[in-house]
Amino acid sequence: MQIGHNRPVLDPSPPVVHEDVLSVALVCMPWAVVDMPSLALSTIAPLFEQRGEVEKLDVVYANIQWLDFLIREAGLQREHYELIVDAEVFGVGEWVFSSCFRPGIDPRHTSFYDLVSDSEHVDAYCAMFRAAPAFIDELARDLVASGADVLGLTTTFDQNIASFALAHRVKELCPSMVTILGGANCDGVQGTAVHRARTEFDYVIRGEAERSIAPLIAHIAGFRSGDKDRHDELLRAVPGLCWRSDIDGASVSNPIGPTPVSMNAVPEPVYDHYFRDLRKSPAGQLVDVKIPLEASRGCWWGAKHHCTFCGLNGSAMAHRAKSAERVQAEASRAVLRHNVLDLVFSDNILAPDHVVRLTTDMALPAEWDVRLFAEVKSNLNFTQLESLARAGFTQLQPGIESLCTRILRIMRKGVTGWQNVRFLRDCATCRIYPSWNILVGFPGEHDHEYTALIDSLPSLHHLTPPAGVFPIKLERFSPYFDDPELGLQALGPSRNLVSAYEGVVDSLDDFVYVFESEPAGISPETLEMLREAVANWKANGSMSRLVALPAPDDSLVVVDDRPAWPSREVVLQPGLEAEAYRALAKGKTLPALASTMCSLGISVPEGRLEELVENWKELGIIFHEDSTYLALATGLRW
């Protein structure tokens, strides 16, 4: 196996050594997860290092330092940090660091406090709120003392206000330090709004940064050396850059590049700084580390049929992928260098070619016993899932979202409800854990669709339940946001975020990612019924079983241990009964099932198939949607 080839060529010209060199600090702020390196910073760090203008580069994991600070100074635990990461209350992470802009204010006197006051963790949230200013001051002083000339920050989800606070304090201590902000929270109009509202940032990069870093760093180095001619002219050429005019100080926002960045221009991530900081952390011993991998960007499905509720990818929907050889090489080097076997693909959906090749000729060595996670499309067949399991994929996020075909069509998911049930069943057979949610609140959905689903859930208790039931949020960049004719009208920024940003930013219309809209679809009463049904599923799932076992005489024995039915064994006789049930592992209509029996040379008396499926429906061992019947027992292969 070759693991040293296929590194991307980033810059064919040799680096030029400049007399006017820079020291650059890239900082990962809370609330990034502490059990993985920042893929964004790990990927762009090499782009800084290859520049001759950069003499020193450091990547600082302030999220790990914040966890240590909370444990040391506030008496909290890692579990409290994870509450923010998991967004028990939407926007609470931003609110915590808003204290840096409201010195001395009691958290109980903020409007956001009303949103957390009923939480059992309210005291921990308030402790974080009070601790944030001292942490930001300590971090800023350390960065200034390090001699950094340039401070780079990346922001996604709840990293905005923490990043604003650090840049603000750094500028108070050292006005000459150049500050740059990038990341998903800066895409499109959001980056423009941030740059206009938060003057502590000299530059904001909108969209992908790979084409912007080199000319920007060259300009900063030249400007610091006294070469200030053509300031505006040079900055106008940097794709996606927000900057301030040398003429009148006005914020200028350059267009994002006309085409998405090729994966050939994306360097191999460097994770060394993360592992250094984790080794220094007292909390490091409590962290089970995972390594992020980026096999592609964009969404190959979204480029064809953008899911109506999804706001991911923003200005870069077009799908671009690394070769399978390069993905395997980068994964291998990361495992060998850092001795970590848990690998997490960041891709929105793993590319079809990667599903095939990363499980066959480009699979990692079986003796490494890696544990892989990826997001996939839920219409994978059994053979593909079996191959993924053999290759080390132990957890998948299939984007199931619903088990009702009509609602899935509203979402533009490109799958059916019964295909999603089949995926869950096959994951159980292949011993893969599927992470999924039920999403509700779509314009055009009806209560009767959910009541039918609720009635069917007891038959699924042997399969992995959803994490929960969640009304969709109106997200910027989603079709629902861009086209109100689809049924959702933006009523203004999320009320949670309006409260969280008090004292930080006044107008959030172009600033945030999530918006309020009128409730749609499911009624509150039916939503509560669905949540109760899912809670019952979660409570009983670990004790439930429905498995088909082959017998020596070619019969099938379906062992049933689900709470809604008495414990029993259903024996399907050799021939028509057993073969028809096996055929339903794929999911078939009655005409298709009859055709399959005919191809097997099995005689089917008139009306017998209808009689069988009706009986199996009563027993709860098949799933029926529209005209399709699906065997529910695990252990079947197709």
Could you characterize what this model shows?
With 638 residues, the protein is of the alpha/beta class. 37% of the residues lie in helices and 16% in strands. It contains 23 helices and 24 strands. It has a 7-stranded mixed beta sheet with strand order 2-1-3-4-5-6-7, sandwiched between helices. A 5-stranded parallel beta sheet has the order 8-11-12-13-14. α14 (382-390) links the parallel β12 (371-375) and β13. α17 (447-456) runs parallel beside α20 (524-540). The protein is elongated. The chain starts with 21 loop residues before the first strand and ends in a 7-residue tail after the last strand.
Shape: elongated
Distance between the termini: 32 Å
Biggest sheet layout:
7 strands, mixed
Class by alpha and beta content:
alpha/beta
Total count of helical runs of at least 4 residues = 23
- Give the overall average pLDDT: 94
The counted number of beta strands is 24
Q: Residue share in helices?
A: 25-40%
Element layout with pairings:
Elements: E1 22-28, H1 39-49, E2 54-61, H2 62-73, H3 78-85, H4 92-98, H5 113-116, H6 122-145, E3 150-154, H7 160-173, E4 178-182, H8 189-197, E5 203-205, H9 213-224, H10 231-235, E6 241-244, E7 251-253, H11 272-280, E8 291-293, E9 296-297, E10 320-321, H12 324-338, E11 342-345, H13 352-357, E12 371-375, H14 382-390, E13 393-397, H15 405-411, H16 417-430, E14 433-434, E15 438-440, H17 447-456, E16 469-471, E17 474-475, H18 479-482, E18 490-493, H19 495-500, E19 514-517, H20 524-540, E20 545-550, E21 556-561, E22 568-572, H21 576-583, H22 590-599, H23 608-619, E23 622-625, E24 628-631
Parallel strand pairs: 1-2, 1-3, 3-4, 4-5, 8-11, 11-12, 12-13, 13-14, 15-16
Antiparallel strand pairs: 5-6, 6-7, 9-10, 17-19, 18-19, 20-21, 21-22, 23-24
